[in-house]
Amino acid sequence: MINLQSILCPTDLSPDSDEALRYAIALARVYDAKLVICHCIESPAFNTDAGREQIRKLIEDAIGAHLAFGNLSSLKYELSIFEGTPDICIPQTAAMRHVDLIVMRSRRRPVAAALLGSTAEAVCRTAPCPVMVTHPHEHEWVGKTTGEIDLKRILVAHDFSNDSELALSYGLLLAQEYQAEVHLMHVLPYAPVPASKGMSMTESEAFEDATKRLQGSIPEEVYLWCKVKQAIRSGQPYREILTYAEEQNIDLICMGVHGAGFAMRALFGSNADRVLRQAPCPVLITRPLRPFVKET
User: Distance (Å, rounded) from C-alpha 152 to C-alpha 144?
Assistant: First the structure.
């Protein structure tokens, strides 16, 4: 069973970043996890004792606004302030602090700007742990006035890889905690899928095979406490995932990725990049935990 003991939430001190902090505090509260809040100072001119003190005051004010939500007086947290660029500082901080999950905000941007990537996408590629990304103007499941979690429907994109199995593990963890539905989805390519014996499957055979494999990926005991729905689609994976999430009013999308497949695969990014940019709800990008290796 996955255990969340430490959660990292980066902030740029903007009201938008505070929205991710709301999610991080809510999750830290539920799992009794330690919350690490980090800020990266990109200009040496601001890396002074006075500047750091001002940053600490702003972060503590933001925490205080969320501490009004319920009984959160026992929240365990610490502040980390580093000099450097966020896409480098955030993964390094997560590794040094042995963080189990990063919760961060990504801004919606025009398509032209999205081609250059974002801090959230860069962090998802190099983070030593899973990353949950929230966006403006999305379907939310942490109350703005209560801080309570209302997670009802979780979509797990599954391509039968070990990375997808990890995404499923996190999806089931959250589903069990909140008695949420799990929607397990596999997307078939346009062309017929090669069979293991070197022959080609017809589309109907590919659908039948994928259905059986999805059924086999869910432990039997899960059905005792969770409603599971399966979906097989055909087409562009990112497009089918986004469409399904809209149709089913999904609260959280879980996707497993690995470094080689998630790095800049093409000019317009990978399927995970596109889901991150356009998702109608928060996205959890799962990665195996990696130990911190100190550079010499």
Answer: 17
Which pTM value belongs to this model?
A: 0.85
Give residue-wise pLDDT tens across range 130-152: 999 999 888 889 887 777 899 99
Cα-Cα-Cα-Cα torsion 200, 201, 203, 205, nearest 10 degrees, comes to 170
Q: Which of 93-102, 262-271, 284-293 has the highest mean pLDDT?
A: 93-102
Chain centroid to Cα 275, Å, comes to 11
First to last CA, the chain: 34
Neighbours of 47 (CB within 10 A): 15
CA dihedral 88, 96, 257, 161 (to 10 degrees): 160
Question: What is the full DSSP assignment across 199-264?
Answer: SB--HHHHHHHHHHHHHHHS-GGGGGT--EEEEEEES-HHHHHHHHHHHTT-SEEEEE--HHHHS-
Q: Identify the CA nearest to 5 among candidates 76, 92, 82.
A: 76
User: What backbone phi and psi angles, to 5 degrees, belong to 83?
Assistant: -100, 130
Please name the residue that has the structure tokens 């600490």.
56
C-alpha to C-alpha distances, 235 to 107, 190, 232, nearest whole angstrom: 27, 5, 10
pLDDT surpassing 90 at residue 99: yes
Give the span between the Cα atoms of 12 and 294, in whole angstroms. Answer: 26
C-alpha span between 160 and 259 (Å, rounded): 17
In the chain the domains, ranked by start, together with CATH numbers, are: 6-286 (3.40.50.12370)
Greatest distance between any 2 Cα atoms in the chain: 69
Whether residue 269 is predicted with pLDDT greater than 60 in this model: the reply is: no
* Each residue's pLDDT tens digit, 101-110: 999 998 755 4
Any idea what DSSP says for residue 195?
Answer: P
* Burial classification of residue 101, based on how many CB atoms lie within 10 Å of its CB (0-12 exposed, 13-18 middle, 19 or more buried): buried
Task: Cite the DSSP H helix spans in 119-198.
Answer: 119-126, 162-178
